[in-house]
Specification:
Oligomer: heterodimer
CATH class of the largest domain in chain A: Mainly Alpha
CATH architecture of the largest domain in chain A: Orthogonal Bundle
CATH superfamily of the largest domain in chain B: MetI-like
Helix content of chain B: over 70%
Number of domains of chain B: 2
Radius of gyration of chain A: 25 Å
Largest sheet of chain B: none
Number of helices of chain B: 15
Number of domains of chain A: 2
Strand content of chain B: under 5%
CATH superfamily of the largest domain in chain A: MetI-like
Structural class of chain B: mainly alpha
Distance between the termini of chain A: 41 Å
Radius of gyration of chain B: 27 Å
Number of helices of chain A: 12
Largest sheet of chain A: none
Number of strands of chain A: 0
Largest interface: A-B, 62 and 62 residues
Shape of chain A: globular
CATH class of the largest domain in chain B: Mainly Alpha
Chain lengths: 297, 373
């Protein structure tokens, strides 16, 4: 009985993932000792004392500004900045995550709308298909994150500050997968189905609404999962060069200025949690929409 | 079919708009009739529009129309008076711009109907579109008198490209040659190697794939400040960021690709008593190639982003990211845009090279096959 369930765990996904995670954690703790040890040895040499290996390990896992903090230090920092402070405090990580989340979502919505609009235009106009699609691909070889400071400078001069500049960076990053996925999706109906609607004298708008759009939903959601995670990357990087004082990107930047490695790692873990949450939310939306459409879409 | 009609309507619309524009004022520059050179260009444009009206397609017709559009585009630039207060250019110019836009759309329609989907001629339409975007940018910046510290016109960016060529070259070498290329190569090779290993040991694959998918969704650029702390300010830390950023897409894609070989083909190799290595070389790597190339292409873009962002966290006084962040602070936006142009061109070139290589090596893949007959 126990052997059978152990077997299942081993052959499934949970077992291997657990083992790999455990291996990564073990490697992490080991690396924390290796990377932090020189600093500790230096200090001991200056203080003219020496210590046992166990002392070295204990100190390496509890340094104030380690080269690589141990995982439990990051957890403690997370607890300190998430649970022990009210969410409205400027020192709370939840507050910064909220700032980043709001510009991520705004950029994601704008980017999705733009992406779908472009895809619809491309599918309906062969000229745009030929003229626009290569440039859409080329647009993504521009390191947009490099333009982030310019966008902020330009928009600030026009009187736009705060959320929108960061959101526009997310928009630029995340319209691309939506456009590419939707062009594919809107073209996925078979000729037979298109011809059927033609015999019913459906116009382009009706074909779009009753055939093309429902057929494109699986492609749309696959693209949205990619889009939402890069929207988050866009929002975080958008906070770097803008001199933003709030947001996960700003936490990374201040952390790197003051050598607060634990703070950087805590912000990173927070960003990862946010990314996982957003992707899961898109997955949930997909399931709800599919259930609503009878699971056939 | 109702499709080609839209192109014709655009042609007619362009003709009407151009004729009406002839009789509208230009702002302080007066009327089109006061400017012989510009007037000549517009009249020629109207004549070509009238001649290319009506049904029918053809490469010649499209090329003539495209040439006319390009020539007539010079007219508003001639007619705009830089001394005019911003935004006070007359309706004659803006209406002609509408006519140019419609005519360009018609020309692109004609050309895309007449040229093949592949080959050098296929580049004509997107090239025309790109020139159009640059032109509208230039005209809007000049027409509305947008100051250069906000958005420099393409001509100023071109001048900066030439004037600061040596600085830009040094930045390119520091960021692209020293950080991006080695980082990309190491990251891709490591991802590929780990994927091969994980494929040999299924247990590892089952454990790594979900984690790899998770990490691929994470904001990895966030590790940039940490790696800059570990590896110092010079290009080593940037290359390290690139390695980490490119590793996971390669791992996930290669693992996916190695599974792409069908059961039947694998059984066939087995019945030939082919060894693991032989099966890998003859069957599984070729079927994985499209996935691997996909990762290589994604990574070429990611690598450039990673290196530039890492330079925001500290760098010696050279490099594309450094140039962008310092020149923005100095309000030298033309140099910033020139750097971005260099980055965009090198990124596109890398992507294009990989796409060409992919077409050479995986020519058998359905997405490259042309429809027969």
């Amino acid at each position: 009985m126990i052997a059978a369930s152990a077997r299942r765990l081993w052959d499934g996904k949970a077992g291997p993932v657990l083992v790999v995670v455990a291996a990564i954690l073990a490697f992490w703790y080991a690396m924390a000792v290796v990377l932090n040890a020189p600093q500790i040895r230096d200090r001991w040499a200056r203080e003219g004392r020496s210590g046992a290996a166990s002392e070295l390990v204990a100190e390496a896992w509890a340094m104030e500004r380690p080269v690589l903090p141990a995982p439990h230090q990051i957890l403690v920092e997370l607890k300190k900045t998430v649970l022990d402070l009210p969410a409205t405090s400027r020192r709370s990580l939840l507050y910064h995550a909220g700032v980043t989340l709001s510009s991520t979502l705004l950029g994601f919505l704008l980017g999705t709308a733009l992406g779908i609009a472009l895809a619809v235009a491309i599918v309906h106009s062969p000229t745009l298909d030929r003229a626009l699609l290569p440039w859409i691909v080329a647009s993504q070889t521009v390191p947009i994150l490099a333009i982030a400071p310019i966008i902020v400078v330009v928009l600030a001069a026009v009187g736009l500050t705060g959320l929108l500049p960061k959101a526009l960076i997310s928009t630029y990053l995340c319209f691309f997968p939506v456009t590419i996925g939707m062009v594919k999706g809107l073209r996925s109906p078979e000729p037979l189905q298109l011809e059927l609607l033609r015999t019913w004298n459906a116009d382009a708008g009706q074909v779009l609404r009753y055939l093309r759009f429902p057929a494109s939903l699986p492609f749309l959601f696959a693209s949205l999962k990619v889009a939402v995670s890069i929207a988050l990357v866009g929002a975080i990087v958008g906070e770097l060069p803008t001199g933003a004082v709030a947001g996960l990107g700003a936490r990374l930047l201040t952390g790197s200025y003051y050598g607060q490695t634990v703070q950087i790692w805590a912000a990173l873990v927070m960003a990862s949690l946010l990314a996982a949450l957003l992707v899961a939310a898109v997955g949930l939306a997909e399931r709800l929409v599919r259930a609503r459409l009878g699971g056939a879409a | 079919m109702s499709r080609p009609a839209s192109g014709e309507e655009a042609g007619t619309g362009a003709l009407v708009a151009a004729v009406v524009a002839l009789f509208l004022p230009l702002g302080s520059a007066g009327w089109w009739f006061a400017q012989p050179a510009a007037l000549l260009l517009v009249l020629g444009f109207v004549a070509v529009l009238a001649a290319t009206r009506g049904e029918g397609t053809g490469l010649g017709r499209g090329l003539v129309l495209a040439t006319a559009v390009l020539l007539a585009s010079a007219a508003p630039l001639l007619a705009i008076d830089p001394a005019d207060p911003p935004g006070l250019q007359g309706p004659g110019i803006w209406l002609l711009l509408v006519a140019l836009f419609l005519a360009a759309f018609r020309a692109m329609g004609l050309l895309s109907a007449a040229t093949a989907r592949q080959g050098p001629a296929a580049l004509l339409v997107p090239a025309l579109f790109g020139v159009g975007v640059l032109y509208v940018w230039e005209l809007l910046v000049r027409g509305f008198g947008i100051p250069g510290v906000l958005l420099p016109p393409p001509s100023a960016i071109g001048r900066a490209l030439v004037a600061h060529a040596d600085v830009l070259r040094a930045d390119f070498v520091q960021t692209f040659v020293r950080a991006v290329i080695p980082g990309w190569a190491i990251g891709c090779a490591a991802g590929f190697a780990v994927a091969l290993l994980a494929d040999r040991i299924p247990f590892l694959a089952r454990g790594l794939l979900p984690l790899g998918n998770l990490v691929a969704a994470l904001p990895i650029v966030g590790i940039a400040p940490i790696l800059v702390m570990w590896f110092g300010f010079d290009w080593h830390s940037k290359a390290a960021v690139v390695v980490v950023m490119t590793f996971f897409p390669m791992l996930v894609n290669t693992l996916e690709g190695l599974r792409a070989a069908g059961r039947l083909e694998r059984d066939l190799m087995r019945s030939y008593a082919a060894s693991y290595l032989l099966t890998l070389w003859k069957l599984r790597l070729p079927t994985a190639a499209p996935f691997v190339f996909n990762a290589l292409k994604i990574n070429s873009t990611l690598a450039l982003i990673g290196a530039i962002v890492a330079e925001f966290f500290g760098t010696p006084i050279v490099g594309m990211g450094f140039r962008i962040s310092t020149e923005v602070a100095k309000m030298a936006l033309d140099l910033v845009w020139a750097t971005i142009a260099v980055a965009a061109v090198s990124g596109s070139a890398a992507y294009g090279l990989l796409a060409l290589l992919e077409r050479r090596l995986t020519f058998w893949h359905p997405s490259f096959r042309r429809v027969a007959g």
